Amino acid sequence: MAALIRRRWICTGLLxxxxxxxxxxxxxxxxxxxxxxLSALAPENIxxxxxxxxxxxxxxxxxxNSPGIQGWLFGPAAIPKLTPAAQKHRDAYVKAIADGKVYRxxxxxxxxxxxxxxxxxxxxxxxxxxxxxxxMVSEFMNSLRTVFLDGRPHTDADIVVRTxxxxxxxxxxGDTLVVETKNFIDDEHHWVDQGVPAxxxxxxxxxxxxxxxxLEIAMTLTDPKNWEGEWKGVRRWNxxxxxxxxxxECRPDLxxxxxxTSSKVHVR
Length: 268
Description:
This protein is an alpha+beta fold.
């Protein structure tokens, strides 16, 4: 018993020491540990001297779908030449549509939509801009996307935690915000659109600017695993001041009743 008590005392002492020194102590005191990068919301980071941004995206935005469905979907007219592996998915998608069915409705099964789809669906997106980052919250699954503006590089590919929205880093070129997004998850449930898959090699460059009262984003997508060359598209968003983004969760217990997810029209 004495030995057990002594081990507990030693462990407690080590924990107390860890809490009193090093990164844990800095975290507890609201400080950055020496040698670590400041978070985008750290007051010291926000307060760093920077040129004034040409525009502020803070607000709620809704994609302009006045051009019709092709105003927000990727493809089919713009789809580049696909690799053989990606073409198999595209062909299966086209056949399913012709048969009145749905091909791999992973979003309906509550898999994250991911970028670029999360940016182009007819759901509002709340954007909050600070000097160090832009936070985008889509009402579609409450998906969070962060665009870092504090000069940080992309995380090394060997240690990054890959996600469906990727890692976005932006910088200003005149009156245009240039955002590069990469480090996407390599997952069979991540799609670009129209039966075209996305891979961990997906890279998206967005050139974001204000055109009158509209937000315009010109996207250039590359993914050598799934298509040749560049896939480009331009979309615009309107500011909406009479709505707020609400909590919207994807619930499998509700979505299992959708035809596209559980009935005979769903093709895997």
